[in-house]
Amino acid sequence: MGVPVVEAEQKILVRVHERFPEEFARLMERLPPWVRVEVEGLRDSLDEIALDLGRPLIYTAGGEARIVGGRTVTKDDLSYLTHRLGGFKENNRAGLEGTLHRISRIQDAYGETVGVTVRVGRFVVGVAEPLRPWLEETGSLLVVGPPRTGKTTLLRDIVRILAERYGPRVVVVDTSNEIGGDGKLTHPGLFPARRLQVPDPPSKNQGWVIYQAIANHSP
User: Fold this and answer.
1) For the whole model, what pTM was predicted?
2) 29/98 same-domain check
3) With the C-alpha atoms ordered 170, 152, 101, 124, is the resulting torsion angle positive or negative?
4) pLDDT digit string (tens) for 26-73?
5) How many Cβ atoms sit within 10 Å of the Cβ of residue 199?
6) What's 139's DSSP letter?
7) Residue 172: domain span
8) Which first-to-last residue range defines the signal peptide (predicted)?
9) Which of 128, 138, 148, 217 satisfies CB 3.0 to 4.6 Å to 157 for a cystine?
């Protein structure tokens, strides 16, 4: 089989999934009001929010970290966010049903929450289009890269492209719920692909879930 050819002048339309404004608004509702005021106007560029006890709010937007002076994060702020999320799982992560946002907490030696990281998740349609020839003509593809370079974003769109061709026979084993989002509802951008979640701890259960996908769901 030859190497697929991608036209150098190929124009790719990249867009954020149409559900994102609603998903962003749901995230803003969980934040302490003063934090929400600082970041809710950054819908198109906000990537991450860092809330650490006794420290100023830090957020990253458009690849630039910004420190908000004049106020520090309190226990009440962290409790407010935790309560509105419904708590954290054993892996110290939480999410919002049907969205790709991920919230992770930091605990001290006594198990108290002393910090929270909020990562804004977006389903970006079109980023994998340059890979479509490989996806349609070859049997496998390895995605490698350092953290925060878009691997998960790329994988989601790869699933979308494969699902266009194979429908529900595309089965995602979602180890950390980063592909389809946290909760029971898989993000609609993956439809009609199906998703299997991996119980904690993933190191012990991932192989078993992969086996179930193969044996039970005809991928």
Assistant:
1) 0.87
2) yes
3) negative
4) 999 999 999 999 999 999 999 999 999 999 999 999 999 999 999 999
5) 10
6) S
7) 148-217
8) none
9) 128
